[in-house]
């Protein structure tokens, strides 16, 4: 009786690197700029409703109430625009925008490196250029108008702004640019736009404060790119804003900062652990 030749077991499948097969959505690069414009225009439409309720065209658009409402409207407009445009390609998921867990200590290391780099470069810039301009964001939000104003302004600066701005500018704007551009070019464009929306014109000297703001946005992009998660960047953003708020706010500002800042750090460490685990995606 003829015997069949022995067959060998198939080899084990190759081990693929982390994140292989999982890629960010291929959002067109122009989604970034159009999404920003649509979000900004949409925020002005949203803001028109409470302004009408507050007195229509006679409402003081520099009052803290209107500034706070405008800041919230801008956040809703930008995040809503990001979600809308992202949905034109594929159903949006949290990890598409960088809302995913990442190893804790490497994230802390990258965030610390980014923050120290920013402090060093901006410190040298300040010594060489000596910009004579002060940011008035805290006062515009009512941080100088009693305890309630101090708390509301602090929450806007330390909690709301880092979440909203990181979801849009790093989670969507930068990620859309990365479908066409390299890391440094995309981060530079992102940082410039990020700096412009935080820029407060105060004569020609006011332009001198724009480079540090753009540098900060650039650093946030690099930390996000290295960690693949927005949570380290949100924590970094909250820490920087906490320092700025403690310095710029009136007496008591530091108390708001030392409470809100650590709470944001805890949230950035705990919330990712509650999300589904996903590997570090590859660029689109």
Q: What would you note in describing this structure?
A:
- With 284 residues, the chain is an all-alpha fold.
- It has a domain at 102-274.
- Helices cover 64% and strands 0% of the residues.
- It has helices at residues 31-54, 64-86, 104-129, 137-140, 146-177, 183-198, 210-227, 231-248, 253-274.
- Residues 12-19 have low confidence and may be disordered.
Strand content: under 5%
Q: Fraction of residues in helices? A: 55-70%
Low-confidence stretches: 12-19
Most strands sheet: none
Shape: globular
Q: Rounded to an integer, what's the Rg over CA atoms? A: 22 Å
How many DSSP E strands?
Answer: 0
- Overall SS class: mainly alpha
SSE order, one letter for each helix or strand: HHHHHHHHH
Q: Helix segment count?
A: 9
How far apart the termini lie comes to 58 Å
Q: What value does the average pLDDT take?
A: 88
What does the secondary structure layout of this molecule look like, with pairings?
Elements: H1 31-54, H2 64-86, H3 104-129, H4 137-140, H5 146-177, H6 183-198, H7 210-227, H8 231-248, H9 253-274
Helix pairs in contact: 1-2, 1-5, 2-5, 3-7, 3-8, 5-6, 5-7, 5-8, 5-9, 6-7, 7-8, 8-9
Short synopsis of the structure:
With 284 residues, the protein is an all-alpha fold. Helices cover 64% and strands 0% of the residues.
Search tags:
284 residues; mainly alpha
